[in-house]
Amino acid sequence: MKVALIGLGNMGLPIAENILKSGHKLVIYNRTASKLQSLVEKGAEMAVSPADAAQKATIVFTILSDDKAAEAVVYGEKGIISGLPKDGIHVSVSTLSVELAKKLEEDHQKNSQAFVSCPVLGRPDAAAAAALRLLVAGPKQAREKIMPVLNELGKDIFVVGEKGHLANVVKLGNNFLIVSMLEALSEAFVFVEKYGIKADAFLEIANTLFASPVYQNYGKIMVEERFEEAGFKLALGLKDVNLMLEAAHNAKISLPTAEIAKKHYEEGIEQGWSDLDWAAIVKLLREKSEH
């Protein structure tokens, strides 16, 4: 199968490498061309624009940081929507707003194209190990056509509906749980440390209770303060929290925990920590506890 991939960041690069390893033909495009060379050497074909990538492959994956980047790639000059042929498929792996996902569904449909949303659960190390969890929503025929590629990217594939935006709802719901965990675990660490209990000792006990790889992995990052070389940047954490709150507002519900996390992420960014891992929320709470 021949597919295109646009966006070679922390997640896009290992996903592209796994597509190549699996034997699929790959067309790549990235705004920063220097990131393309290693993949070209491994057999990937380089495109000169998003439209060119879509024309060459007819199935195009996008892995982009936010709504603004996705809109530029899809709707901008020489964007995907102008290059993708009829019956072509756009697969968005990005964490987008629910509203933008709905718009992409409608606009691709108007152009006789299919939109499949496939956000993933997992950090760059999971992407490299082809151990992502994939949330898939979109027209059945399009989903089935891309399934051979999805099978090379993760160990669990969850089909959540026929409408692409539903996958974005599920992704934001899962990210809300991670945000809630980061907030709660940060507060717990600061609490026990004030009484002289070391965070690593507390984490060992907590892990016997929750037995969750999410608690284990993020807890270790927090204990060891490994916030540089972020798997997921604090600024992106704020972006996702804002997407959760926007979607909640549109559904006429409240997410109080997300509001608290939003405030802490904003304070962290004010401290200049945008590029630290989003688990650095504990760093903020530790510093606040000292005043």
From TrEMBL:
Annotated ranges, domain 3-hydroxyisobutyrate dehydrogenase-like NAD-binding: 168-285
6-phosphogluconate dehydrogenase NADP-binding domain: residues covered: 2-161
Keyword annotations: NAD, Oxidoreductase
GO molecular function, one term: NADP binding
PANTHER family for this protein: CYTOKINE-LIKE NUCLEAR FACTOR N-PAC, OXIDOREDUCTASE GLYR1-RELATED
Catalytic residues in the record: 171
Keyword presence, NAD: yes
Keyword Lipid metabolism set for record: no
SUPFAM superfamilies per UniProt: 6-phosphogluconate dehydrogenase C-terminal domain-like, NAD(P)-binding Rossmann-fold domains
Name of this protein: NAD(P)-dependent oxidoreductase
Protein species of origin: Niallia taxi
Family assignment from sequence similarity: Belongs to the HIBADH-related family.
Pfam families listed in its UniProt record: NAD_binding_11, NAD_binding_2
